[in-house]
Amino acid sequence: MEGKKKITFDDIARYTNFSKTTISRYFNNPDTLAPESQRIISEALVKLDYKENKVARILANGQTEFIGIIVPEFYHRFFSEVLNQILSTYETYGYKFLVFVGNRNEESERRYIQELLSYQIEGMIVLSHTISSEVLSRLQIPIVTIEREDEHVCSVNTDNYTGGYRAAALLAEHGCDVLIHINSPTDPRIPAYGRITGFQDCCRERGVMHEVMFRAVDRSHEGDLAILREIVGTLEQTYGGKKKGIFLSNDTLASTLLNLLFRKYGKLPEDYLIVGFDNSPASREAIVPISTVGQQVDRLAAEAVRLVVEQIDARKKGRPMRGRKPVHLVIDPVLIRRESTEGCSAEC
């Protein structure tokens, strides 16, 4: 069976009575054409059944329509949720994504970035903490980070301070005698550090007994389980008979604590209230749904892509972001009350 003839710019030009230059402008810079001209060419492409040769277009103008993404890992489902939302923006912006998982390894991430640059990506979105924003800013491509140190690049973050404050306020509202925050040792330059300070400020303002426990969590399920088992033993020895409000740095950790308590007691004891952070599926799917401070993942992802595309468009128009101050967008968190603080409903 004979294959169909490939439609070329010459064919489109003859069909529309436009020049090849005008047809090229339609594909590479359509805003320079009048709306009526765009309509005529668009209709011609349908009637001629034109299939664009993406490789040829990349070779012609050097624009790949690729954006690189570096995520630290997928142990925390927050990252997979963000990635899913980023990928869904293809229909809006037409950009495709090349994704690498850094696994907290700086050497690996540096290799991955060089690999991405070799594919002539037009921008990059970084969720990993490993490489400093100063180093990232030297790459000379549009970059946006999410929930990480961001002094030298544009970023989109949650208002972590407000989130930590609201988590503590919820636990205090339920009459807890002591509030505990469990987190890994955190660099104050990272936005998530605000969860710690927000928690502490709320406790101090309300005069509530509180403690922040720094442990090397967030590495693996087995490691987190061992650390939380030790913490539960300490809490029961130190605060036995007291109502304990536990605010954990993320939902994955909160779900692990909940599972540990269920294994030990066959239920969530009445003297434990639990709040997580992120509103990842781990909180919604837990055996007792976990109250959490929800990051608006859809907005984080949408704003990150919008911001990197704005920078890409500015470069194409000869207005690069170099020399301008980085843009830092902050998204409000949403407190979500579930059974781990509100008690079980009839369906539990």
From TrEMBL:
Gene Ontology MF terms in the entry: DNA-binding transcription factor activity; transcription cis-regulatory region binding
HTH lacI-type domain: residues covered: 7-61
Record keywords, A-Z: DNA-binding, Repressor, Transcription, Transcription regulation
Claim: Transmembrane helix is one of the keywords in the record: no
Keyword Repressor part of the UniProt annotation: yes
SUPFAM superfamilies, sorted: lambda repressor-like DNA-binding domains, Periplasmic binding protein-like I
InterPro entries named among the record's database cross-references: HTH_LacI (IPR000843), LacI/GalR-like_sensor (IPR046335), Lambda_DNA-bd_dom_sf (IPR010982), Peripla_BP_I (IPR028082)
PROSITE patterns: HTH_LACI_2
UniProt protein name: Substrate-binding domain-containing protein
